[in-house]
Design goal:
By secondary structure, this protein is of the alpha+beta class. It is built from 5 helices and 6 strands; from the N terminus they run H-H-E-E-H-E-E-E-E-H-H. The chain has a 4-stranded mixed sheet. A two-stranded antiparallel ribbon has the order 5-6.
């Protein structure tokens, strides 16, 4: 039997069974901040859902935001609305032995790319460019996760 999503477990506390199938099940957890999507039909329950999620993820998540629109614009920043927990947008995100200070309201960041970042890092040749290594240009880097992960994990 597949593992039930954390969102669905939280939604069971609020919604009748026929409404639970309309819940967005994915959550982005960045440090101790969760970012969720809420269907329009459930907007009036968004805060209750966020509080139920805080309870479901007690100790792991301290803040819940709702993404109110698709990622857009030149900087690809998410449009967020605070729903529950501490009133802050800055967190420390840890990935592959590296720590990043992230302001989820001001910079593009996706925890869903963590395995891709490590995969790319392992492909980079770390020697000096004149000795067969590579120069990696991380334009539009957001928090700079690719650069830091490459610096730490590229083969020596």
């Amino acid at each position: 039997m597949p593992r039930e999503s954390m969102m669905l477990r939280a939604a069971r506390r609020i919604f009748p069974p026929e409404e639970q199938r309309h819940i967005y099940k994915s959550i982005d957890i960045i440090g101790d901040i969760a970012i969720i999507k809420v269907a329009r039909r459930h907007e009036v329950y968004a805060q209750q859902l966020a509080e139920a999620l805080l309870e479901e993820l007690k100790g792991r998540v301290k803040v819940v935001y709702r993404q109110t629109a698709p990622t857009k614009g030149y900087e690809r920043v998410k449009i967020l609305e605070w729903l529950a927990g501490e009133r802050r947008s800055i967190t420390i995100y840890r990935e592959h032995g590296c720590s990043f200070k992230v302001d989820v309201e001001k910079v593009f960041f996706s925890p869903r790319l963590q395995y891709e970042r490590l995969r790319i890092a392992r492909l980079v040749k770390k020697e000096a460019p004149l000795k067969g290594g590579e120069v990696v240009v991380n334009m539009f880097s957001g928090v700079g996760t690719f650069s830091i992960i490459i610096a730490k994990h590229a083969p020596k």
